Structure formats: structure tokens, C-alpha cells
Amino acid sequence: MSGSRPLARRIIGVETEYGITCAPTADGPPPMNADHAARELFDPVVQRSRSSNVFTRGGARLYLDVGSHPEFATAECDRLEDVLAQDRAGELVMADLAEQANARLAATGVPGRIHLLKNNRDAEGNGFGCHENYLVRRRGDFWNDARTLIPHLVTRQILVGAGHIAAAGDTRRAADGLRAYVFSQRADQMWDAVSSATTRARPLINTRDEPHADAERYRRMHVIVGDSNIAQGSTLLKVAAMDLLLDYLEHGGELGDLALADPMRAIRDTCHDMSGGVLLERSDGRTITPLEVQAEHLGRLRDHVAQGVEVTALHEAALDLWERGLQALRLQQPELVDKELDWAVKHRLLTRYCQRHDTDLTDPRVSRLALAYHDVSPGEGLRQRLEGAGLLRRFVDEATCRRAVDTPPATTRARLRGAVVARAEDLRRDVSVDWVGVRLDDGVCSPVTLSDPFCAVDERIDALLESMGRSTTDPPIGV
Ligand code: ATP
Ligand code: MG
Ligand code: MG
């Protein structure tokens, strides 16, 4: 197309907090609580690094904050393939730690198995999150952009929600007294549209100004609302949609006309209506349904792309999935997306089980099946079985995801960080690392600040690696 331009590069990272439990393997109570299980899980990490907050050879951050939710924050990615591979790498890292911990428990006669769950709610109903991070150019109307994205963030759960059996105490469960299947685990936990606090106020977008990059040029859009996804299709659609919407806004696109009167009420109403057709009140006094909000966003993006933006094959795949996801709801035919979008994959799994066993969603066996969908261990989790049976579609193959555990994205500064971490691990040298820099703890070489996340080659890092000495595994980074 003449006059077209490639979609602007953007740094994207996904942080996932995991739920953890230790299930008894013999009669009796769980042998340890979640805090204890999390400490057990991180034991090898602490042994190796004297810290429960580390960066990996793959450029990611693996850590245990206060509380008991192990977290994996992916390295900075500027390709959708890398986001998917890195996100899956996080599951593999967690599964590996769980396997090691379970072997230790078995060896010491502790009657329990640790499970790691990529979901957003524990048995007591406490929530934990999955955050997305998008780099945006610093300009005057960031706040405006953040606000105009709210209708999208409120309603995107009809496509990328993970699906959830609403708790028995939920006042909006189906009128017949059965538990209802709803779109999202997260919607009922959000309290504020835009705010700088993440825990107390639970905003959809966190506006804390911490760009992890040159603050003169960039900001980081920190999206707090969103379910942790198992299906790669859901993750793909979630991040590709935001990537395209931000590009649209950065090039003069408008979404402000779709503002909702009461976003926090709308997010709950959207969650609990599986038709996608609940009426939401707009700021201008009219009404709109979640389906209409999403169709409008998709239409504007299709026009934006048609006006000369070259997108990747995965962006195209996401737009196609978006369209089919809306159609599945309009026609009430989840089978249109039941291999690609979590809510539909899980819905199919649970309804098939209910039909086979002549039961319903209140059955504890069904709740256990729903949990197994989110379990990341290869033995107990359902991912491998579903993928093997052709019931869960992959967009990036497993070998690539496995490589991402130790191999950072090649096109961002994560490449530099990963090289330093790898060399330090190989040579048993102590380094201090964060998102924007690396430093050798012995002070022999000056610290290196990596303020440009797009920069994957840096002579100062070559020099730092050189000063650390050669390891047998690494080629020079600058080549
Ligand atoms: P916390 O979760 O402890 O509140 P945080 O929000 O800074 O801190 P981290 O868990 O450290 O989050 O993860 C940061 C995420 O942001 C990572 O996934 C990383 O890849 C991504 N990221 C890093 N730099 C940038 C950037 N400049 N723009 C967008 N995303 C970034
Ligand atoms: Mg985090
Ligand atoms: Mg965060």
C-alpha cells in the first residue's frame, strides 16, 4: 500500500501473580499454608541468589513480594510472539519450581503437594492480579488517553475474560439458585477507574509515573484490570488490541465519545451477563452494550489499519479472533472461539463434564475441574491434555516458549540484561540488576544504565561482559 507505515514498535510486558496452595496427599489438613508453601517454592532461588527477587537469563523478573503470590514479570517484548513465549516461559519456570519443591516434600515425608494456579482468586475469595505494561511516548494527553481506554478495559472481558464460576455468596448468581458462569474473576475486585494506587483502590489503570525508561521521552501504561489467561488466543487478543488502540490514539484517534457514566458498575454488569447485551449507561445519557462497545473499537481499528498501517500476521490473527469472539456472543455460539478464548474453552470443558455426569456448576468436582484449568503443573494442569486433543490452540509452539525461559527477546534491552545475568551465573559473579540497569557488585566496572528499552546492542555491556571474563557458553553480545 502506498504511503503506509509499519505499526510503531512498542515495549510490552506482562506481570502475573500466581496462586499457591499445598494440598494434602493423605487424610488431614493441608500440611502448610500459602505463605509457607511460597517460601518452600522459592528456596532454591534464595539459595542461589540470596534473594527472593531475581532477574533471569531470559531477562524476566521472578519474585516473591510481601504476601504469598509468586510473580513472574516477563522481559520487555516488542513482538507479540515474544509476549506469548515469555508468558508461557513464566508458567514453565513456576512449574519447574513446584516440581522441585514437591520432590523435596516427598523426600522429607511431608504429606502435601504444592500447586501453582494461574488464576486471580484464592479459595477465600482474595484476588491477585495480572498486569500489562505498555510503553507510550510522553505527551500531554496521557491522562486523556488513559481515561478514553476505560470503556475498552471495562468491556474487553467478554472476549478475554478467563471465565469464572461465580461464588455461591454472589448476589447476582442465576435466579434459579445455581451458580452462574461469568466472564471474569477480576471484575468484582476493581474499585476505581484510574488511580495511582494498586492495592487499596484497585484501579483499572495505574497512573504511578514509573516508566522504567527515559522519563523525558516515555511513560508506562500500567493496566491493572485483566484476568490471567491460559489460552494464548486470549493473551494475544488482549495485548494486540491494546497495542493497536494505543497506536490509534497516538495518531489522533478518538474514543472519548464512548465514555461510560459509571465504569465500576458497568464492569460488574458486563461480567455477569453472558449475552454481552446488557445495557450500560453512557456519559451522554444514551445506552450501549458491551458487544457494541467492542464492535465499535474493532471497527475504528480496522479503519485505522486500512488507512495504511502495516501490521504483523499475529495482529491480523488477533483482529480476526476479535471479530469471531463478538460473533460467538451475538449468535450465542461459543464454539466459534472455544479453542482460542479462555472463557469459551473453559465453558466447553465444564458444560461437557456436567452433561456427562448429569450434574451442574455447584458440584465441587466441577469447581476442581475449573481450578485444574489454571494449574500450571504438567501433571495436574489441563493445558497439555487440551492442546494434545486439539481443544486449545497455540499461536507460538512449545519449543519456542521453552527457549524463552533462558533466552531473552532479541530486539529489546532484555537481551543485554539476559546476557549479563547468564555470564554472572556461569562465572558465579554477583551482579545487581533492575529494569533500567546492571552493576557488578565488586565495583570493578562502572554501572550501566539501560534507559532505552528498544536498544538491544550496547558497547558498554560488551565491555562489562569482557571485564567479567569469558564464559564458555556465550558468544560476544555485540555481534
Ligand atoms: P510492582 O509489580 O512490584 O508494583 P512494577 O509494576 O514496576 O512493580 P514489575 O513486576 O517489576 O512491575 O514488572 C514490570 C513489567 O514492565 C515487566 O513485565 C517489564 O517487562 C515491563 N516493562 C519494563 N520496562 C518497561 C517499559 N519501559 N515500558 C513498558 N513496560 C516495561
Ligand atoms: Mg509486578
Ligand atoms: Mg505491576
UniProtKB/TrEMBL annotation:
Pfam families xrefs: Pup_ligase (PF03136)
Protein name: Pup--protein ligase
The protein's enzyme class: ligase
GO-annotated molecular function: ligase activity
Catalytic activity, EC: 6.3.1.19
N-terminal signal peptide: none
Keywords annotated in UniProt: ATP-binding, Ligase, Magnesium, Metal-binding, Nucleotide-binding, Ubl conjugation pathway
Organism of provenance: Actinomyces viscosus
Xref: InterPro entries: Pup_ligase, Pup_ligase/deamidase
